[in-house]
Prior knowledge:
5-stranded antiparallel β-sheet, single chain, 8-stranded parallel β-sheet, 12 helices, alpha/beta, 16 strands
Amino acid sequence: xxxxxxxxxxxxxxxxxxxxxxxxxxxxxxxxxxxxxxxxxxxxxxxxxxxxxxxxxxxxxxxxxxxxxxxxxxxxxxxxxxxxxxxxxxxxxxxxxxxxxxxxxxxxxxxxxxxxxxxxxxxxxxxxxxxxxxxxxxxxxxxxxxxxxxxxxxxxxxxxxxxxxxxxxxxxxxxxxxxxxxxxxxxxxxxxxxxxxxxxxxxxxxxxxxxxxxxxxxxxxxxxxxxxxxxxxxxxxxxxxxxxxxxxxxxxxxxxxxxxxxxxxxxxxxxxxxxxxxxxxxxxxxxxxxxxxxxxxxxxxxxxxxxxxxxxxxxxxxxxxxxxxxxxxxxxxxxxxxxxxxxxxxxxxxxxxxxxxxxxxxxxxxxxxxxxxxxxxxxxxxxxxxxxxxxxxxxxxxxxxxxxxxxxxxxxxxxxxxxxxxxxxxxxxxxxxxxxxxxxxxxxxxxxxxxxxxxxxxxxxxxxxxxxxxxxxxxxxxxxxxxxxxxxxxxxxxxxxxxxxxx
Length: 503
Ligand code: NOJ
């Protein structure tokens, strides 16, 4: 196995609740994933990333962890995890798991102990507790409302997310020690790497001062709180974790969720720091050639292999709905898979799943109750077979299926599935390197990325067909016109005429 496999890996994100249910409770689980991993292998991905499956009251669907080194009975047990890991490795898939170090669950034994121990105790010092008649500062929670909740003895505790997710105090050395053990626990078990939740959070400004302009906080974005994110000292935590990851053979990989503008996010990677970051420039960029070229350029300035190309995950609106058409979503698949470095696909993206308008009374996202914003529409379970219940579960699913879900099923072979498989096959056969230089441009409504001088990714992002550059079309997200032009909302991969790849 190559040590730097992650630099150009295609990682398939699995949201365990919604992938496959083996025990007919309507919620996906680890044995369900194990049984369906061959779908991921057949797609041609290199690795899977599992969002949290550790014990949790599930207030934020696992991002509220009450035990960092176990498996929630909803999803199975440690034996089921070991079986999943073994099956993945047998199929040649690496496994990344989520670690959530900014906050835990209010059901975590250490938070419970802090509540029981009372003000001024060493137990409370593990979190951010403070006195006051009103919230100790003006920070808003990312999920809406204040970032502080009062406990019966009058103190307040800080939670940048839901009130069920108290923030750890990273100024207390016991926090780093606790997480050292968490990392070692999973690395010793054989996981290949970690996706670090809110990796740009954790450290807060000393004294937790007021934000000068709390109204400037964009909803659902921590980054506008510069007193609680992107603090320089956070890199010390990453350095500590990198030395733990590097002490393993093969070294384990650290991928940070760094939801900052691309030019800031790229600074989180490099020797001694994180291997890779999720930077969300491509997630937030509108369907616009100039926006894509600018974002691509900013992301590509980072450590080669350090950025991830990603347009979907469990927190954002599915691309067919976000961009406004299934064709655009297919083009975006060719975009992320054609650029140098790692690409992340979210489960169901390969099926062209659209965002679902989940009925309000069925919505489960805690952000829905706090702010009226719901991420449930991208979390509806996977359709495997054409007819209800679509091979997901024998019980009603935890989020209801919309009508017509079967047209997207793996068994229905939707157009984006064949496209994703073909793109992955071609990607692995072309002489690509994560170190390839890439030059982005936008000519009116045509987006182009030229890679290593010989390969071009071209997308017609306007409402007209456009001629393709001279060369051999290797793959297109939809058929070209009879004149060989690129129709609107279509991407193509080309080998440019007169330019030979350097092998
Ligand atoms: C980012 C995760 O992707 C999201 O689902 C979660 O709600 C927040 N971090 C808080 O953990």
